[in-house]
Amino acid sequence: MSSFDRRTLLISLAALAGCGFTPAYGPGSSGAALRGKVDILAPDDRKSYTLVNRLTEQFGPTQTPLYRLAYTISTDENQIGVTRDQEILRYHVAGEVSYTLTDITTGRLLAKRKASSFTAYSATGSSVDTLTASRDAYERLMVILADQMVSQIIATVELPAELPT
Question: Which of 20, 21, 24, 33 meets the CB 3.0–4.6 Å disulfide criterion with 16?
């Protein structure tokens, strides 16, 4: 039988603190330093609107833009469930966002990366059901991609030491 050992927990937490672990949005962290300072490229369609909306939720509304986030979205949709009568039952949607984060004042490229994922939707209902399921799948995909982008930026981008507050 195993039981909870408070000493082991405390030693583990101390080890994490000793290795440089800091909360993503804690004081002095990249997440906190980016809050309200990322100018995101304006959306031009439904997919980019969902992506930008989620990025804005994560980075906060731009108050003092220090960084510019530009992106390119690409998606691909494939049939994955087809009956003998050639009726499509399910679609697989893959997506990728290529993005760059640039320091506005210096023009220095801070990050150039990609985020990718996939989702699927069912096409077994009426045409209205299928359209709604398709839109929902693309919306889910854009949220997943935006969350990946934010995680990658916070985890890997080294920001200048002197940030205006």
Answer: 21
Percentage of the chain surpassing pLDDT 90? 56
Across 88-112, average pLDDT: 94
**Structural domain spans, the chain:** 35-156
CATH for the 35-156 domain, from 3.60.150.10, 3.40.20.10, 3.40.640.10, 3.30.160.150: 3.30.160.150
Side chain identity, residue 81: G
Helix 46-59 vs helix 127-156: crossing angle, to nearest 10: 40
**Residue 33 amino acid letter:** A
pTM, two decimals, is 0.79
Q: What is d(CA 133, CA 137) in angstroms, rounded to the nearest whole number?
A: 6
SS3 content of the chain, % helix, strand, coil (to 5): 40, 30, 35
pLDDT band of residue 89 (cuts 50, 70, 90) is confident
* Separation of alpha carbons 140 and 51, rounded Å: 10
